[in-house]
Amino acid sequence: MSALLEIQGLHVDLQVEGFPRPVIHDTTLALDAGEALGLVGESGAGKSMTVRAIMRLLPPGAQTQGRILYEGEDVLAFDRGALRRFLAGEAAMIFQDPTTHINPVRTIGDFLTEALITNNDVKPAAARSQVSAILEDVGIADAERRLTQYPHELSGGLLQRVMIAAALAIKPRLLLADEPTTSLDVTTQSEVMAILDEQRRQRGLGMIFVTHDLELAAAVCDRIAVMYAGFVVEDRRAESLHEDARHPYTAGLMASRPSSAQRAARLWAIPGRPLSAFEVGEGCCFASRCPFVEERCRAEAPALTELDGGRVRCHRAQELRGRLSEAFTGGSDV
Amino acid sequence: MAVDAGFPETITQTKRRARHVDWVMLVCATFIVFVVVIAIFAPVLAPHDPNQVDILSASQGPSASHPLGTDVLGRDLLSRLMYGARLSLSGPALIVVISTVLGTFLAVAAAWMGGWFDGVSSRILDILFAFPGLIFALLAVAIFGPGLVAPVIALSIAYLPYDARVLRSVALRERNLPYIQACYVEGLPTRTITGRHLLPNIMPFVIVQATISFGYALVDLAAISYLGLGVAPPASEWGLMVANGQASILTGHPQESIYPGLLIVATVVAFNLFGDRLATRWSVTPK
Q1: Which of A14, B146, B277, B284 is 20 to 30 A from A271 in CA distance terms?
Q2: Nearest CB to B178: which of A55, A89, A101?
């Protein structure tokens, strides 16, 4: 299968007080049609920026290097027309906070049908019936009534379903979900996530799913890419990442998850604080916190290389195979 | 303000705020409507022809036939005030409409496009700021001759930077809100995003700004007429009446200056207070 989306060596600098400051050093990813890729990492690792770069939604003054190929064409080189066609019919985005991403003074119906009417020349009546069918798909029962309501009349969970419906309405092939459930409470989260997952599978959409939640990413994604300080450090099939991480950072993340099966006196944490992308110097981005660090790691940045069916950015990945999990079992089994 | 300590207000608070009658605002609004209605229906309401000279009843005090008395030429002051309202209000109205429409357009364009357009337009507005509106108007009158057209155009240009600057910052803030980004992500064309989403959401600011500008425009235009650079004499206009009545003040007949003067003050205060209260009510703070 050829890749739907391919990000090659994406590097992004933002203007901070007139000087460029890197937020992404090197994102290299591929997404097949119909595949779900989880993008996980701590705040500031560059997950959202990667997704925003795909939508060309970076703040003014941002400079990009590298390529983002959508079906072989570079999104970063699109002119206005191509960009609009891409946004209007190929890619859709679901944001973290639905309450701020919908114009408060327009009805849900207006919000959902607008893109169809303006971009796809659908007649208003036809757009309305299409949209209410999609609302039923995302589990909103009285769609007709909802269409006449305003955003403030709907709960966060309902509103996020409306956002999902809006994304699905344009019949995209690529879905970008930027922490779509973070702003919702836990029970609503699982409902919304189930709907998103089901609809994505039914429609065969490729999805990049940005989240902090490793468990959630593993549950809904085929593959997971871990980001740290502006680098993709590991990219592996979701089921093998869990058991068998190859990067010390990923192994550390796995070890610091709370477990519902065992009581832990104290939750284990990776020592040190997460680095921002602009603080990364020579050498490996994780060198300052890595228990396996050696001279070479501080001097020379490792490349993202194939290992055991995935890719990992670590000099010692090969020799550390199987030893990573022991090193991180510090407190979690107590 | 109904919002205290940074907590978003509850629905009950919003309803209470909506039900709360702001008497100052109501009085101002009533006065504005009153003046506007008189201006519109002046030909029906005025007891006399405003330009009919009657030397025999010159400089009279209030009487049954002339409720506010007459001027030095015996013209009925009440009728002149009523007709004067037409020019005195339509001038500022034109100024406000022209400067607000242009200002909003410029502000939205600058906020949306950013980059060189924003830079160039902001610098041009900075240059316009350097000229006080009155100086601008005097210059225009010197070039195009007296009348209403030259000062109206000059003041429209002079007011443009005030509107544009305030609205640009509002539009810029609105433009970066997530819902506008969501529109962009949906692939909506720029004119749809700005026209159907951004503009309606900055309308409260536009309306408040226009209301407050109206007061200033009225004073400026009255000042120009007072200096004899606005409308030509037989026509009645409040600023012109104040100027014409000046000589009679010394002879003990201040009515021709006093009534229009009071009207100018009252109208300006009404518009300013109304705009100010509206800003508070809509949680919109200009500047």
Answers
A1: A14
A2: A101
Q: Give the H or E element holding residue A152.
A: none
Per-domain residue ranges for chain B?
21-52+68-281
Interface contact flag, B178 A100, Cβ < 8 Å: yes
CB contact under 8 A, B187 and A102: no
Cα–Cα dist A92/A169, whole Å? 9
Chain A residues touching residue B189 (CB < 8 angstroms): 84, 118
Render pLDDT for B155-193 as a digit per residue (tens, 0 to 9): 899 899 988 999 999 999 888 888 898 898 888 888 889
**E strand or H helix that includes residue B260:** helix B255-281
B193: which residues sit within 8 A by CB, 6+ positions away?
Answer: B180, B183, B184
Residue B287: per-residue pLDDT: 44
B134/chain A closest Cα distance in angstroms: 39
Domains of chain A: 3-226 (3.40.50.300), 229-327 (no CATH)
Whether B178 sits inside 8 A of A89 (CB atoms) is no
Select B21-52+68-281's CATH number: 1.20.140.10, 1.10.3720.10, 2.60.40.790, 2.60.40.1180: 1.10.3720.10
Helix, strand, coil percent content, chain B, rounded in steps of 5:
75, 0, 25
Q: For A169, which residue in chain B has the nearest alpha carbon? A: B186
State whether the Cα torsion A163-A164-A168-A169 is positive or negative: negative
User: Which residues on chain B are in Cβ contact (under 8 Å) with A170?
Assistant: 186-187
Q: How many CB atoms lie within 10 A of CB A323?
A: 12
B137 alpha-carbon distance from chain centroid: 16
Mutate to test the interface with B, among A78, A80, A108, A114 (most CBs of B within 10 A): A114
How many angstroms separate the Cα of B167 from the Cα of each of A38, A49, B102, B105?
41, 30, 11, 9
**Does residue A334 surpass a pLDDT of 70?**
no
Q: Mean pLDDT throughout B56-66? A: 75
Strand pairing category for A206-211 and A36-40: parallel
Interval B194-252: pLDDT, tens: 988 999 889 989 999 999 899 999 998 888 888 878 777 777 888 888 888 887 888 87
Q: Does A202 contact B at CB distance below 8 Å?
A: no
**In chain B, which residues have their Cβ closer than 8 Å to the Cβ of A102?**
179, 182
Strands (E), B143-287: none
Nearest by CB to A87, which of B114, B177, B186? B186
Distance from CA of B185 to the nearest CA of A (A): 6
pLDDT exceeds 60 at position A106: yes
Structure tokens at B165: 């600057």
pLDDT of residue A298: 85
Contacts of A100 in chain B (CB under 8 A): 177-179
